[in-house]
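Narrative summary of target 7.
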Amino acid sequence: MIVAKKKKITALIWEFTGTFFLSFVITAGAHNRSYAHPLLPLAIGWILAIMVYAGAQISGGHYNPAVTLGCALRGATPWPTAVMYMGVQLLGALCAGGFGREIQGDRAGFPKVSKLFDTPGGRSAAFGAEVLYTAALVFTVLSVATAKATAKNNFFGLAIGSVVFVGATAVGDISGAAFNPAVGLGLSIANQEFEWIYCVAPFCGSVLAYAAFTFTHPDDKFSEKHLRTGDDVSFGSLRLASRQYVTEAIGALYLIMTIGLAADTDSGSGKSATTSLAIGAILMIMIYAGGHVSGGHFNPAVTVGVWLNGGMAPEPSTRNRFVRPLGYIVSQLVGGFLGAGIARGINDAGGLHTGFPMVGMEKTAVDGLIAESIMTFALVTVVLFTACSKHSEGNSYFGWAIGMTVFCGACAVGPISGGAFNPAVGTALPAVTNHPSDIWIYWVGPLAGAVAAAFFNRLTNPDRDARTDWSDDTVLLHVTDLEMGGITSTPDGANSSAAGASVYEE
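Modeled conformation, tokenized:
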């Protein structure tokens, strides 16, 4: 009993400490509610990642009442513990806000809705932005820190912290980018302000994330007594396919929504110095969060490359090898159009432009085709060699490698071709923003690069994993190992997750 109480107290101390440091970086660095340093969004995301890695084995590393709510709904955190966590998280943010106020005075930073969005429609858009990026954060936590298929990974902190970085880059100048009731309320109250959006929106996002996680992980029960044994496909192949398609749609939605919100149509460099990095990071996040379910393609070119490499098993009901890749592509386009529409709706509410890829003003269509083909070739090659090869099986860097390939490409050829490397990106955003003239380039170029990458892989990678069978007892393993894997499902169950979002049990 004494040991249990000591663990509980230690966990509460860590939740206070982690939330304090996260909040302090925000309030000390965001002078007058604007980013004083161009890399501050990255610093905020990384301090969260650092605190998650440091304290996960002690408290689970929540530092956010919305995350705690998601873990409690999941069954990873007991409800009495969740309530205490929320209390100390708010206290940590209040203390950080007090220190920030002391050393910065009126320049102390805290989340605040932009004046451009201080209208009924604008505030609704800001509310929606907080809901969506909090949902991304909590969904990522549940997927990388509590799911059986991602147990004992090393990327959990990177993925979780990167969500905050991406959200701060995409909607920091819209909603204030709190995604955390403790940060939103604690820092505001310390600066004698109050914003109700931060009381409600993050919790709504948490519930949305839990619903999405439950649908895409129907057999992944946290309690050992609920775990199934050897029947991952007990819901049938249709249910399996549906959750894979939904996962692909979710990933494409967030990728394309982030591009539309973060990119600047008037500048090849983007709205800020971190825009290109944020685009690569959101792809990395979605791969880590959804790769064990669908393979984490989120890109028709990647799907074509993996399929040509022999890496997509046929639908068990039809044995038709075309059905599954077509289903993925349709899902990616559906998610992409939803993401593009959401981005335009949010931006329009504040009179902002929605980003979209386009060939540079002084460049030709041929220039765009060459740039898109070469960088998509690089992207699909990295996918096949880091996530579909036996020699790289079990690694934790696959998502980082894939996402950062997009970042490198955006920096190198973004001003030339628009830097899509993805037909879903190159279709949804131009169509929704009424700039469809270059859409054909973003199909021809990336698909040509994908085909070339598939043949290059067959030529140079003797260790490629080209299994195509679909058997009831191995279907999920093949999704994980073959299509985007890097992670192998283990029999240890959810309690063995490296992130330890549930390390404390009463």
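The chain is about 65% helix and 0% strand.
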